[in-house]
Amino acid sequence: MTYDRLPQEILELILDEVSSALTPALLNCSLACSALRDTAQKRLFHDVCIHLPDTGHSLLGQTLVANARLRAFVTTLRIVLEPVLPRTSYCSFPSLPNLAHLNITGDNLQAPLDWSWTLGEDWETCKRDVFRMMCLPTLRTLRICNICEFPVDVLVACGQVQELDVHESSVAPGADDDRDLLCPLLPLPGPRASLQGLCFSYYTFPLLVEALRSRPASRMSIARLETLCLSIFDRDTEQAAREVLSTAAASLRHLELCFEPFFQVSWDTLGLPDPSILRQVTFYITEWDDYGNMNAFLEQMPRASNNLAGVVVHLQCECACAEGAWRRLEELLGAARLEVRVEDEWCADFARLLPRLAGTGRLVVCVE
User: Fold this and answer.
1) What torsion do the CA atoms of 251, 253, 258, 259 make, to the nearest 10 degrees?
2) Mean pLDDT for all residues in the chain
3) Percent of the chain scoring above 90 in pLDDT
4) Is the pLDDT reported for residue 63 higher than 90?
C-alpha cells in the first residue's frame, strides 16, 4: 500500500513517532511524498524561533516570509531581539494567522536588553512587527524575558492574552512613538478581557498594576485571575501584590511568592484572602537575618488551611552555622517539598542538617 492510500490517522501516528526523534527525520518525511508533506510540515513549523532585526538573512526567516501556507502552521513563536545593526535594511516579518504563544526575549548576555535602543527606521519597523504579533486575536500566552523598560501600555492593550509572564524584565510607561505604532494595530472594538495567569519577577510590578487599574487603553483585567506568581522586593511591590490579591480574591486558586533578601513580609501585611491558595514560596538567603525572616513567615502560616506544596531556598551564604534555623525549617514544612539551590562554594551536608527530610524523598539539592 502506498503512503497516499494510508488512513490519515495512521500517518499521524507514524509522524508522532518520528517527531520524538531528530528534526532531520521530519524534514525527510516532508520531502518523501505529498501524503506526508502537510502533516510533517505542521510539526516542523508549529514552534519556531526568529532573530530580529536580522531574520531576513536566515533560511527559516526567508522561508516563512515567502510562504503563507507554512506561516499558518506556526502556533508558537520565539522572537530574539538582538542589539545589533542588520546587515542590510530590515525585512519586515509578516503576520502569523494562528499564533497562540509568543515569547519575546532580549539577546544580551550581560544585562537585560534596553528597549529604547534604536536602529533608526529599521528599529521602528521591527517594533511594529513585534506589536502586530502581540495584538493578534489568536494569541493566548505572552512571555517577555530579559528586556529592560518594555512599554507597559503595550502589555495592557493585549486583552486577548490569557497568560502573561514578565520574566527578568522591567516595564516602563510607553513612549509616544510606541503608542503611535500600537494604536493602528489594535482590533476594534476592544473588549476588556481577564487574565487567567500572571507571573512577574521584577520590582516594576507596581507600574503594571497601576496601568491595569487606571489606563483607559487597558484591555486587560485581573478580576478573574486564577494563577499568580510574584516576587516581593519592597513595600511598593508588597502593596501592589495586596491590591491584586484583593481584586482576584474570588477566583485565585494558585499563588507562588518569591521573597527577595533583606525584606520581611508577614501574613497580616500581605493580606491573603485564603491562605490555602499559597502553593509555593521561594526565599533568598544572603545573610543570617534572612533565615529568621523565612522561618517567621512560615510560622505565621495558618496550619489548618496550609496547602503548601513546595518551599524553594536560594542559598547565597554560609549555612553550616545555621543548623538551628534549618532544623526549625524542617519542623515548619509539614508535608511540603523542600528544594535547596546552592552555589558550589556554599554546599553542605544537607542530609545532616535536615535528617528527617533526607530519607523521605522530599528534599532536593541543586548545586548551581
Assistant:
1) 70
2) 81
3) 19
4) no
Q: Are 337 and 330 in contact (CB under 8 A)?
A: no
Residue 99 DSSP SS3:
coil
pTM > 0.90: no
Omega into 189 within 30° of 0, i.e. cis? yes
Average pLDDT over residues 248-272: 84
Beta strands 337-342 and 310-315 are: parallel
Cα gap 262→29, rounded to integer Å: 56
Q: Single out the residue of 218, 244, 217, 214 nearest to residue 230, CA to CA.
A: 244
Distance CA 315, CA 324 (A): 16
In angstroms, the CA 285 to CA 315 distance is 5
Q: Cell digits for 271?
A: 493580606
Q: What is the per-residue DSSP string for 286-314? A: -SHHHHHHHHHHHHHS-GGG----EEEEE
Average pLDDT rounded to a whole number, residues 232-238: 90
| Residue 23 three-state SS | helix
**238 neighbors 232 (Cβ within 8 angstroms):** yes
- The whole-number pLDDT of residue 304 equals 46
| DSSP per-residue letters across 142-188 | EEEESEESEEHHHHHT-TT-SEEEEES--EEPPPHHHHHHHGGGS-S
**Single-letter amino acid code for the residue at 99:** L
CA separation for the pair 52, 311 (Å, rounded): 38
User: Residue 192 above 70 pLDDT?
Assistant: no
Contact of 303 with 272, CB cutoff 8 Å:
no
